[in-house]
UniProtKB/TrEMBL annotation:
Residues 1-26 form the signal peptide. InterPro entries: BOBF_sf, CarO-like. It comes from the Bacteria. Keywords: Signal. It holds the Pfam family BOF. This is NirD/YgiW/YdeI family stress tolerance protein.
Length: 122
């Protein structure tokens, strides 16, 4: 009975080591085909769905329940900001913010950004 427990313990330990080793792999840092947008104009020119973006600018106006028009000075794009991502401090069209989100490009519709984070920029 002790031998079986020792065997099970050894197999579990080896499994844990293998799992840990697979998680600790290095990350690829070479060239990539992913898009790094620098501004809204670049997104509008060639939108790639699900591309993560970080942009600074202003929420110019509210156009729907959680929809706003955002501009970084290069162009304007519609953004969706869930209420949970809005800061407790009131913001206006004059407040500079940084948004983090994903480009959403659906067939036959203009691209927008699904915002996953919003902070006020001092």
């Amino acid at each position: 009975m002790t031998s079986i427990r020792q065997s099970i313990t050894a197999v579990a330990a080896i499994g844990a080591l293998c799992l840990g080793a697979s998680v600790a792999q290095a990350q690829y840092v070479g060239p990539s085909t992913t898009t790094n947008y620098k501004n809204v104009a670049e997104i509008l020119k060639d939108p790639v769905d699900d591309t993560v973006v970080v942009l600074s600018g202003h929420l110019l106006r509210k156009v729907g329940k959680e929809k706003y028009i955002f501009s970084d000075g290069s162009a304007e794009i519609r953004v969706e900001v869930d209420a949970k991502y809005l800061p407790a401090t009131p913001i206006s069209d004059k407040t500079k913010v940084q948004i983090t989100g994903e480009v959403e490009k659906e067939f036959m519709s203009s691209p927008e950004i699904d915002v996953k984070g919003l902070v006020i920029v001092p």
